[in-house]
Amino acid sequence: MGQRYSELTPDLTRFIWEQNMFFVASAPAEGHVNVSPKGLDTLRVLGPKTVVWLNVTGSGNETAAHVLENGRMTLMFCAFTGRPMILRLYGKARVIHPREEDWSAWLSHFGDLPGARQIFILDIELVQTSCGMAVPLFDFKGQRQELIGWADKKGPDGIAEYWEKKNQVSLDGKPTGIFEGGEL
């Protein structure tokens, strides 16, 4: 059954690498809680207390607004094949934008995905496992490529235009920090 850890163990890190998707949860002090599924090759474990993930452009930008407000973030991994387990990483996150000086250094962990919007660095405060015995079994067929194609077709200027229209504020009207002083 469930256990708590202060950091990732080698077995838990292996479990993360075996998963084809993860979920990100964040919330403002007041307003809507956000839970978002993530795929592609966008997550790295940098150590037992540090995980980074690359956020590509999407219809909303809730996580960025929430992290700017309070830093709280939870990542969840579920075993959809093999031995059942759910793994949650609780912690404080910070966000890196493409305009920032250290963007290239952080991006080097991933490669340059079209539409890359932010990198989140999660400092892990608590690791928790739970049984996952009610999580259904699924067969993985592959990662979807539509978002990459969409971002490629838009190009950098089209992506910036999209960010301006769709990614500057959260559902609750909170700023996401996608632009600084109106500039990318």
Automatic annotation (TrEMBL):
InterPro entries: Pyridox_Oxase_N, Split_barrel_FMN-bd. It comes from the Bacteria. SUPFAM superfamilies: FMN-binding split barrel. This is Pyridoxamine 5'-phosphate oxidase. Pfam families: PNPOx_N. It comes from Novimethylophilus kurashikiensis. Residues 9-131 form the Pyridoxamine 5'-phosphate oxidase N-terminal domain. PANTHER family: PYRIDOXAMINE PHOSPHATE OXIDASE FAMILY PROTEIN (AFU_ORTHOLOGUE AFUA_6G11440).
